[in-house]
Write a structure and sequence with these properties.
Chain B: This is IBH1-like N-terminal domain-containing protein. The complex is a heterodimer of chains A (86) and B (196). With 86 residues, chain A is mostly helical. Chain A has 4 helices and no strands. The relative contact order of chain A is 0.06. The chains are: A mainly alpha (86), B mainly alpha (196).
Chain lengths: 86, 196
């Protein structure tokens, strides 16, 4: 995103960034944001990031659970080793 | 907005390296230790897969600040560890600019205070949310304005991909476990059916 003229950022670039950010937010949040203010967009973005963090945390839990029975002799371990070798 | 295929491959590969170090290795871990290792692997995998961005540097720097993480990080990153740990030289400029920006903002606010109460409220709210965002995005404290939004966008796309990829790993491993379990019981069932 570098412009040749100067390092100043255009209004266009800013509004493009804002609309891209808005498009990332999940549908349910986007619908209630027809007249998005800067504060609302930032708030929704923060909420979304926090929920993604929670999702990853939960997935880590489940993966840890699943792999509790995976020792170095199991077929899954062999699969992992062979994928890494390729 | 989606991540590139190359991101997915790099993520999965790095994730599997993390699994190998934390699960497949002869050392047995408790649930919490294994979970922390998996989470650490996932964050490292996301940062490595994305490449060089302000937030990826911030993430790796943040993770390696914890002493207990360091040996695991070195193990799963190998020779990449040294390269990723090198300090970013451009970051020193920013604190100085921030002081100048803050000083000029204070002067502006004093002049406008009496005129625009609603505007002040809106700006305070934006400032508050921006501060929250800076805490959530790795390395955010040294970003402002455009670069904060730009990095946030990139970070959110990568986070979404991280969650999706972990989910597909979970599904794949669950499925392969089911297959290896059912393989064991199938011959017995056949025998009993034939017997009837």
């Amino acid at each position: 995103m570098s412009s040749r003229r100067s390092s100043r950022i255009t209004d266009e670039e800013i509004s493009e960034l804002i609309s891209k950010l808005q498009s990332l937010l999940p549908e349910s949040r986007r619908r209630s944001m027809s007249r998005a203010s800067a504060a609302k967009l930032l708030k929704e973005t923060c909420s979304y990031i926090k929920s993604l963090h929670r999702e990853v945390d939960d997935l880590s839990d489940r993966l840890s659970d699943l792999m509790s029975s995976m020792d170095s002799g199991s077929p899954q371990a062999d699969i992992i080793r062979s994928i890494l070798r390729s | 907005m989606q991540v590139a295929e190359a991101f997915k491959h790099a993520f999965l590969k790095q994730m599997l390296l993390g699994f190998q170090a934390s699960v497949v290795s002869p050392k047995s871990m408790g649930f919490q230790e294994r979970k922390s290792a998996i989470k650490l692997s996932a964050d490292v995998a996301m940062a490595v897969a994305r490449g060089t961005r302000k937030w990826t540097r911030g993430l790796i720097a943040g993770l390696s600040k914890e002493h207990q993480n360091r040996s695991f990080l070195q193990l799963i990153l190998g020779e990449q560890y040294e390269r990723l740990m090198k300090p970013c030289h451009s970051s020193w400029k920013i604190p100085r600019c921030k002081k100048i920006v803050r000083r000029s903002l204070r002067v502006c606010c004093r002049r406008k205070k009496k005129k625009n109460q609603v505007g002040v409220l809106a700006r305070t709210l934006v400032a508050k949310r921006t501060q929250e965002l800076k805490i959530l995005v790795p390395g955010g404290e040294s970003m402002d304005g455009f670069s904060l939004l730009d990095e946030t966008l990139d970070y959110v796309v990568s986070l979404r991909a991280q969650a999706d990829l972990m989910q597909s790993l979970l599904t794949t491993i669950e499925a392969s476990k089911l297959r290896s379990h059912s393989k064991g019981t199938l011959p017995e069932r056949k025998a009993s059916y034939v017997g009837n």
